């Protein structure tokens, strides 16, 4: 690829992320061990007097809020994929296809000051976002993190397949999460390590952990 915003895409004809995929949930929650989450959480703890700020970019999860609050973190939550589906941010392109108005999107999403967060749980949002939002969102997340702040992101590997269900993530323990299949989104793209490194090139360090269930976990430090 010639630039950081040209991403490998295996799933041609995939449903755009701005249009919900109305498929039923595909079963009960499953539990997985998460080495990346354990590393992410290792030093992430505050106190009564000093509460670091953490942002969860997935659907609201009472389990996540409770878990993070119990570690004396100030918890923020924003369902960024739902924000990307907002019909008011869609705009026609010159060729007649639908595009996204980035100014409108950021007017109502991720409206935080620079260097506000100590930690961000991005989960696998980058795999599901509309193409034109991926790079601007990552750049915004970088600005929102404090120096040495950390971001945890998941990426599906090629073996995951286009029909891999979208899941909500619920933290059970520092190294354990529950995956809850949910309707609404279809996998849009697959990143390899080089694409991830290009996308997050402004971060000072990147650590990769490959799970057994076709998920690559990455910890990024600003």
Question: Which key phrases capture this entry?
Answer:
7 helices; six-stranded mixed sheet; globular; single chain; 222 residues; three-stranded antiparallel sheet; alpha/beta; Rossmann fold; disordered N terminus; 28% strand
At CATH level 3, the topology is: Rossmann fold
**Percent of residues in beta strands?**
25-35%
- Alpha-carbon distance between the two ends: 24 Å
Which descriptor suits the 3D outline?
globular
What is the annotated CATH architecture?
Answer: 3-Layer(aba) Sandwich
Tally of separate domains = 1
Largest sheet: 6 strands, mixed
Structural class: alpha/beta
Structure description:
With 222 residues, the chain is of the alpha/beta class. It has one domain (30-221): 3-Layer(aba) Sandwich (Rossmann fold). Helices cover 24% and strands 28% of the residues. It contains seven helices and eleven strands. The chain has helices at 35-41, 62-70, 80-84, 102-108, 125-128, 131-144, 193-199; strands spanning 30-33, 53-56, 74-77, 90-92, 98-100, 117-123, 145-156, 167-173, 176-181, 205-210, 215-221. Strands 3-2-6-7-11-10 form a six-stranded mixed β-sheet. The longest helix is centred in the middle third of the chain and has 14 residues, at 131-144. The protein is globular and about 55 Å long.
